[in-house]
Specification:
mainly alpha
Length: 236
C-alpha cells in the first residue's frame, strides 16, 4: 500500500512540477510582461526558489514523493536490490508518465509556452555539461542529507540555491535540466524522445554522473555510524 501511494505521489508531483515551471514562465513574460527587463532573471530566480520550497514540502507531506528520477535513484543505489528494482521499475516510470501527461496538457492549454529545453551544443559537450551539473547537485544533496538531516529550511535553502545556480550555468547549453523525467515530457511532445541526443545527454550522462557521485561520496566520506563510534572511542 505504501509503495502504491509513493508511485501515485511521484506521478502527481511530476505532473505538478512541469506545470509549475510553465506557469512561472507565463507569469513573468505574459502576465508581468518583463521580456527585456533587467530584473527578469532575479524575479524568475526568486519564484523558482519559492517553487522548490513548495515541492520540498510536498515531498515531506507525501513521505518521499519526488519529481526527479535522480533524486530517487541516488538512495536506491545505496539501498538493497528490491528497493533499486522498485525505483527503476515503478517510481521512475511514474515520474516520466506524470511529466508527459503534464506537458501534453500544458501545450494544449497554453500553446505559447513553447516546447521546453533543447540541446544547443554538440552531443559530447551537452553530455559533459549535464553530467557535471548532475554530479555537483547529487554531491551537494548527499552532503546535506548527511550533515543536516533534520533541518528542513536550511537544507532546502542550500539545495534550492545550488540547483538554481547550476541551472543558470547550463541553461545556454543544455537547459541546465538535471531532471530526465521533465525533459522526457517536453521531448515526447516534440517527438524527439528516442533520439540519440536525448538519450545520451538527458538520460545516460545524468545517470552515470549520479552513480559516480554516490560512489565518490562513499569513498571520500566515512559513514555517519563509523564517525560517531570514532568520536565515542576518543571520548572514552
Amino acid at each position: 500500500m505504501a509503495g502504491i501511494r509513493l508511485i501515485l505521489s511521484d506521478f502527481i508531483i511530476s505532473f505538478m512540477w512541469v506545470w509549475s515551471g510553465a506557469l512561472i514562465k507565463l507569469f513573468v513574460y505574459n502576465f508581468l510582461r518583463l521580456g527585456f527587463d533587467p530584473n527578469v532573471e532575479f524575479i524568475k530566480g526568486a519564484l523558482s526558489i519559492i517553487n522548490m520550497f513548495l515541492f520540498a514540502f510536498l515531498g515531506n507531506l507525501s513521505k518521499g514523493g519526488s519529481y526527479n528520477p535522480l533524486t530517487v535513484l541516488s538512495p536506491a543505489i545505496s539501498g538493497d536490490f528490491s528497493r533499486f528494482l522498485f525505483t527503476v521499475g515503478a517510481r521512475i516510470p511514474a515520474q516520466v508518465l506524470g511529466s508527459i501527461v503534464g506537458v501534453k496538457l500544458i501545450i494544449e492549454t497554453f500553446p505559447e509556452v513553447g516546447f521546453g529545453p533543447r540541446l544547443k551544443v554538440d552531443i559530447h559537450h551537452g553530455a559533459l555539461t549535464e553530467g557535471f551539473l548532475t554530479f555537483a547537485i547529487v554531491m551537494i544533496s548527499l552532503g546535506l542529507a548527511r550533515k543536516s538531516p533534520g533541518s528542513f529550511f536550511m537544507k532546502t535553502w542550500i539545495s534550492s540555491v545550488s540547483k538554481l545556480a547550476l541551472h543558470i550555468l547550463g541553461s545556454d547549453l543544455t537547459g541546465g535540466c538535471m531532471n530526465p523525467a521533465s525533459v522526457m515530457g517536453w521531448a515526447y511532445a516534440r517527438g524527439e524522445h528516442i533520439t540519440k541526443e536525448h538519450i545520451l545527454v538527458y538520460w545516460l550522462a545524468p545517470i552515470e554522473a549520479t552513480l559516480l557521485a554516490v560512489w565518490t561520496f562513499k569513498l571520500l566520506i566515512r559513514p555517519l555510524k563509523e564517525e560517531k563510534s570514532g568520536v565515542r572511542t576518543k571520548s572514552d
